[in-house]
Amino acid sequence: MKTYRNIAREIERRILSGVYEVNTSLPSRLELMREFNVARATLDRAIQELVLSRRLTSRRGSGTLVNPLSEHRRDIALIGVPLGVETEFFRNFNCRCFKKELLAKRSNWDMLYEFDALLWRFPNSSEIPVIEAMNGKIPQVVVNRVIPGVNCVSTDHRGAYRSIASERMAEFPGALPVFMSSGGDSLPGQYRFEGFADACRSTGKFYELWKFPPNESFSNLAEEMERRLKNVGDKRILVLSDSIALTGAFMQAASRSGRIWGSDLWYSDFDNNYPENVWGVKVTSYIQDYEALMNAALERLGELLDSGGDQMPEHKLIFPLRRDGDT
């Protein structure tokens, strides 16, 4: 059964692809009712939706005209995007924040059809079913999550860790590479380790993988890290951590072990933009480039809308920002 939204999307697709040309009239209501096999009320509602979005103009005696594309600013639902986030692409759309709490009720999912497209920022597991239900029905892009068959824009965790690990191993060839894992099975954590392992393989380096239980206490983490540092002996080490959650404990363990930062110990983590007075040293880190992620996501939404949503899904990677510190 065709709904008015299905019909509106199809008419919009035909406008974008040139089937219905700008400044010309749509076929008559009767022709469209026969083609779509719907009642007049259903067709009128579809036309009205396109009139409200300025895709069409309905004039008594002149029929329904296709507006120039420049007159149509599309409505984008920003889901999980904090207030105050702005990018150069926002001016191309009517961007409105959609309350994530509304998605807890399945009956509210239809409210998303009021928008031309959806932009999801860091969706959680409870929102994945909504994204999957909307896929193929309304253009959407997910930021910093990877969902099969859905347009995604995410941080290049693997490339970032491959880059920093390769740089450090070239600069300090005699040091032992160590990767510290915060446990769990997050995709970013996996990508970060894979980038580290890529760098080690490319240089023929053996490395150590230090895994720690998730949600372990600070004191237990520090004690276990101190023990492992003592097992390494007096070797110089290059440590990459997959999370800022391990940084504080490692700082304490390194201090107790008599390690000298930037001399026999180098350390990097992710999402750490703290100043020097937090840890005692300023840590080299990568952080998310939120503006680049949002720009790329909105640009992709524009491409999908201009093509009528017919393009194949893409997964675009954005390299993060780097913050160089003492380590």
How would you write the strand order of the largest sheet? 4-3-5-6-7-13
The proportion of residues in beta strands is 15-25%
Q: What is the number of beta strands?
A: 14
Helix/strand structural class? alpha/beta
Largest sheet: 6 strands, parallel
Brief summary:
The chain has 327 residues and is α/β, with parallel strands linked by helices. It has helices at 4-17, 29-36, 40-52, 128-134, 157-171, 187-203, 218-232, 247-256, 276-279, 290-306; strands spanning 56-59, 63-66, 74-79, 93-98, 117-121, 140-143, 151-155, 176-181, 208-211, 237-241, 265-270, 284-287, 315-318, 321-323.
Topology record:
Blueprint: H1 4-17, H2 29-36, H3 40-52, E1 56-59, E2 63-66, E3 74-79, E4 93-98, E5 117-121, H4 128-134, E6 140-143, E7 151-155, H5 157-171, E8 176-181, H6 187-203, E9 208-211, H7 218-232, E10 237-241, H8 247-256, E11 265-270, H9 276-279, E12 284-287, H10 290-306, E13 315-318, E14 321-323
Parallel strand pairs: 3-4, 3-5, 5-6, 6-7, 7-13, 8-9, 8-10, 10-11, 11-12
Antiparallel strand pairs: 1-2, 12-14
Tag the structure with descriptive keywords.
Arc Repressor Mutant, subunit A; six-stranded mixed beta sheet; alpha/beta; 3 domains; Rossmann fold; 327 residues; 37% helix
Describe the model.
The chain has 327 residues and is of the alpha/beta class. The chain folds into three domains: 4-70, Arc Repressor Mutant, subunit A; 73-155 and 291-322, Response regulator (Rossmann fold, 3-Layer(aba) Sandwich), CATH 3.40.50.2300; 157-287, Rossmann fold (3-Layer(aba) Sandwich). 37% of the residues lie in helices and 20% in strands. The strands form three sheets. It has a six-stranded parallel β-sheet, with helices on one face. Strands 9-8-10-11-12-14 form a six-stranded mixed β-sheet, covered by helices on one side. The protein is elongated and about 90 Å long. The protein starts with a helix and ends with a strand.
